[in-house]
Amino acid sequence: MIELSIPQLGEEIKQAKDLVFSILTKEHPLSLIELSNSVRKEYNLKITYQAIRKAVDVLHRQGVLTKKEKKYDLNKEWILKTKTFFDKLLTTYETGKEVHAFTAELVKENYAVYSFRNLFELDNFWSDIMYYWADHLKPGENRKCLFYGHYVWWPIINLGSETKLYEYFKKKNINKKFIFLRDLPLNHWGASFYRTVHTETKVIEKKEVGEMVDVDILGDLVLQVKYPSTLSKKLRIFFEKYKSTKEMSMKEITKIAYESHDIKFIVFKNPAIAKNLRETYEKYFT
C-alpha cells in the first residue's frame, strides 16, 4: 500500500509536510535549513525549524523523500509507484477503455498507463523508466534491451541525455539492440549514433499500418508508445523530407518535440510476451 502525502493544490497550504513537498517539487535537493528558509521566504509563514524537521523525518520514513549528504529530495521510486497507483485508479472509471488496447489477457498483467503532452516530456520519462529498470535488476534477471520503432527522434532532440543513458547501460552490462522500421537517411544517422554508444542497430523498411507504435523490451518489461495520428504524420514528413542532420531544420523538430499531443506510454510486465517479441526481432541480427 502506498502512503500518500500530497499537497492540496489550489488551496492555502498550512501543514509543514505539504510545504516541504511543495517546495521540493520546484527546487531540490535542499537541507533542513534551506527548507526552513524557503518556507519563511516563499509562504511568509511562521513555522518553526523543529516542525520542518519533524515533517521531513516523517516523509523520509514514508519513503516520499530520499536523503544524501544532509540534503533531501523527492524519491523517484515513490513518484513512479504513486503515478502508477493513480493511473490504475483512473482506468477503472474510463469509459473508452483505451488503455486495454492489447488483449483481454493483458488486462490481468502488471501494467501502467501514462499520458504525455509532448515528445520531450515522453523522452525524459522514458529515460527515467530505463534507469529505474537498470538499477533494480537482480542477479540472474534478463539484461537484454531490444527496441523497434519507426523514427529515431530521441537523439535529435536530446542527444546528451541519450549518450549518458546508453553509456550507463554499458557499465551495467546490458545488451542493447535497436531496429528502425523505416529505411531513411535520418534513421541511418541515428543507427550510426547508437553504434557509438555500444548498441547493435539495424535499419529495415516496414511502414506503419494504422497507429504508429514503438516498442521497447527491457528484460521482462514491455514499453509501448502509441503516437496520435497527427504527431506520427508530422514525424513521417520530417524524416522523409531531410537527408542529413546538417540539412534538417532544428526549429522544425523543436516545434514538433514541444507541440501538444496526447501520447500514450504503456508499461506491462509479461515474461512470455517479452520473450516472444524479442526472439521475433532478434532474427534481424542473425
Characterization of the model:
- Helix 2 packs across helix 3 and helix 6 packs parallel to helix 7.
- The longest helix is centred in the middle third of the chain and has 18 residues.
- This protein is 48% helix and 18% strand.
- With 286 residues, the protein is α+β, with helices and mostly antiparallel strands.
- It is globular and about 65 Å long.
- It starts with 15 loop residues before the first helix and ends with a helix.
- The chain folds into two domains: 59 residues, Arc Repressor Mutant, subunit A; 203 residues, Endonuclease Chain A (Endonuclease, Chain A), CATH 3.30.870.10.
- The protein has a seven-stranded mixed sheet with strand order 3-9-8-7-4-5-6, with helices on both faces. Strands 1-2 form a two-stranded antiparallel sheet.
